[in-house]
Amino acid sequence: MPGILLGMVNPVLEELVSLSHKLGDPQNDLAILAEGNASARANERNFYVKASGYSMRDIGPDGFSLVLFEPILAALRDGDLSDVEVRELLSSSRADPDVYPRPSVETFMHAYLLSLPGVSVIGHTHPTPLISLLSIPDCRWISGQRLFPDEVVCCGPATAFVPYVDPGLPLALAIKDSVEEFIEMHEMVPKTIWLQNHGLIAVGRSVADVESATFMGIKSARVWLGALSTGKDLLPLTPDSIKRIHTRPDEHYRQELLWAIRNKG
Question: 263 Cβ partners below 8 Å, 6+ apart?
Fold first, then answer.
């Protein structure tokens, strides 16, 4: 893209690089090596997504690929591509194959989620505490529970759950099924998605939305692990309490204010 080649400032890429560095910071224990990925909507036709093989910890603008929505979404509608066809499609779907590296195999899930209303940014990580939680038999049940109010505010009234499937197109199709079921049940797009034995997806209108959902989601995983370790019965919030917190404007205002203060700092 000319903006990259000429050194011009690209606000979307700048925010995406900053988000990736936070998610890839070793102190946060969310992603190591080339784990995880992030994406953001560039415009109605294109989106940026992390390229294969890059580390979130130190990725720069050149580590993201600008991809066309339509061929990727068309593949999701078709749903039946060989591994060779997937690789060819990922290469050909770049806005400019001479400029951009080949996008991540998870490009399919990013395209689908970014096509949903109110979703402009996505962060996908592999947090150690959450993977621990996602490796126990009750993890699907846990995804529908909430233990404390800020979890409701930042992560939504529940989390969409996806049983383990292979990364790439199969995972994107499974995510699509889970999200559509969630929307039908809750009349909203999920803020967080748990991938069994795999990791976390956080979506939102902004980088701040994704960060808050990610970090509060990790706190939630630690709380669950601590509570489960006691061997005692757990006491999740009631559905009425969750609904009340989810619809209270003062809670959401407080969260938005905290992020505004943090971003200014």
Answer: 208
